[in-house]
Specification:
Layout (H helix, E strand, L loop, with lengths): L1 H8 L11 H30 L1 H12 L4 H26 L4 H19 L5 H15 L3 H11 L2 H32 L4 H20 L12 H4 L15 H10 L2 H22 L1 H7 L4 H8 L1 H20 L5 H21 L7 H28 L7 H29 L1 H21 L2 H5 L4
Helix pairs in contact: 2-5, 2-7, 2-8, 2-9, 3-8, 4-6, 4-7, 4-18, 5-6, 5-7, 5-9, 7-18, 8-14, 8-15, 8-17, 11-18, 12-17, 12-18, 12-19, 13-14, 15-16, 15-17, 16-17, 16-19, 17-18, 18-19
Length: 444
């Protein structure tokens, strides 16, 4: 049984090559659409079960006595297990097929969400949320692999950011259904509704997705689109460990992106995870606050996609320049979020505007600087491992936003927490700037 499962998870073998340019073009169009949509919907569902705690937290505090510290510990626990899991998943994803790896992860997190909805014990909830982080880590590495194998370098920034909008789309959808769950049911519905949906989508992914183009008889995407990048390096004779060592573990640009991601993720998750509670303490009622918070990921979709379009249109796919611009705008938006989100002095429109601006620029910077840029400084064969290594940094920053956010907001006030977010944006810009020249060398 175990051997069958391992075979089912392994990279799919090459199929008989398709002949004829018209047939290749037809099949490429079909499989690119199927692969993109399957990965997009699947990863959107990962976020439905990942961020449900954000929208349920205020009601859980009232219903089961969860405190700010409890909430911070739950968040930190998940981010730690996710970061560790993403590193392992990144290495494994390079050796597994997209379909099986992603479906197993989504099924696992959906089952955890269902269990979460029936429990009131804080210690048990913390344990389960940690388990959720582990299975959640199986979501992004296979989709990163799918993106670099199905989309060529000169279009990859756009499609990477378009795919990355699935994260913001999932949070926006959750933000839309959460007020309804709170008004008509309870916080428990915010967990079991996404859990049921996730199980259905996981089963569907098994029938929709495959693996690399060669698994359906198609040539490599770079050959098909005549978009061969110039790197001046030969890696075909290197072993798996040598590829990992050279292009991931001792690649300084992967580490620069990792450090940038750590600071950016702190800002990102402070804004989202603590945004709901911040608004309530500034006078916004719980249900409207949950709805308003959806503006952040909703406009994040636009921010991510627009960033990828600008990169491909004006910088030949280079991600670093647009990332730096977005980070500068994010710093100003964070300042505005702190100063203008206050129901006593600001209108609903102003509050929604600053939430939208933060979402727009943080998602654009994260999708480009922590995603598309990474794909340009490493290899296809090592993208999963590179994503995994950067994921450790990302969720170290995210973990600090959990318990760190609780400690800072309590001891330094909201002003201290938001000031640290602004500083983090500036530090992120510095590390992204270190990759500026390197990225130019991979343009065909």
């Amino acid at each position: 049984m175990l051997k069958k499962f391992i075979r089912w998870m392994k990279t799919l073998p090459d199929a008989k090559p398709i002949t004829g340019q018209n047939q290749i073009a037809k099949q490429y169009k079909l499989w690119r659409i199927k692969t993109f949509v399957g990965m997009y919907v699947g990863y959107l569902c990962f976020y439905l079960t990942r961020k449900s705690l954000t929208f349920a937290a205020p009601s859980m505090m009232h219903d089961i006595g969860m405190t700010k510290n409890d909430y911070g510990i739950l968040g930190t626990t998940m981010y730690i297990t996710y970061g560790i899991g993403k590193f392992a998943s990144g290495i494994l994803a390079d050796k597994c097929n997209i379909r099986s790896f992603m479906a197993v992860g989504l099924l696992g997190t959906s089952i955890v969400a269902l269990c979460f909805s029936f429990i009131s014990s804080i210690p048990l909830l913390t344990f389960l949320w940690g388990v959720n982080g582990g299975v959640q880590s199986m979501g992004f590495p296979p989709t990163a692999k799918g993106t670099v194998y199905w989309f060529s370098p000169n279009e990859r920034s756009f499609f990477w950011t378009l795919f990355s909008s699935s994260k913001a789309g999932g949070i926006a959808l959750l933000g839309a259904i959460s007020p309804l769950c709170l008004l008509l049911g309870s916080w428990r519905a915010i967990f079991y509704v996404p859990g049921i949906l996730g199980i259905m989508v996981a089963i569907g992914m098994i029938f929709v997705l495959k693996d690399k183009p060669s698994s359906v008889g198609l040539p490599p995407i770079e050959v098909y689109r005549n978009d061969i990048t110039v790197s001046g390096e030969k890696h075909s004779e290197l072993s798996n460990w040598q590829v990992l060592k050279k292009y991931v573990f001792v690649n300084p640009f992967v580490w620069y992106i990792g450090l940038a991601s750590m600071f950016l993720y702190f800002t990102r998750w402070v804004a989202l995870d603590w945004g709901h509670i911040f608004m309530i303490e500034r006078g916004v009622p719980a249900a409207p606050a949950a709805g308003l918070l959806a503006f952040m990921p909703l406009f994040g979709v636009v921010g991510g996609v627009s960033g990828g379009w600008f990169a491909d249109k004006f910088f030949k796919g280079r991600a670093a320049p647009i990332t730096v611009i977005y980070l500068a705008c994010l710093t100003l938006s964070i300042w505005g979020m702190y100063h203008f989100i206050n129901l006593g002095t600001s209108s609903w429109f102003v509050i929604a505007t600053f939430l939208a601006l933060v979402g727009f620029f943080v998602e654009g910077a994260q999708s480009l600087g922590c995603g598309a840029l990474l794909a340009r400084v490493t290899l296809q064969e090592s993208i999963g491992a590179a994503i995994g290594l950067v994921g450790v940094f990302e969720y170290a920053g995210a973990a600090c936003s959990g318990m760190g956010g609780a400690v800072m907001s309590k001891n330094l006030g909201w002003s201290g927490l938001f000031i640290f977010c602004g500083i983090s944006c500036i530090v992120t810009m510095i590390f992204i700037a270190f990759t500026w020249k390197k990225e130019k060398t991979v343009i065909a």
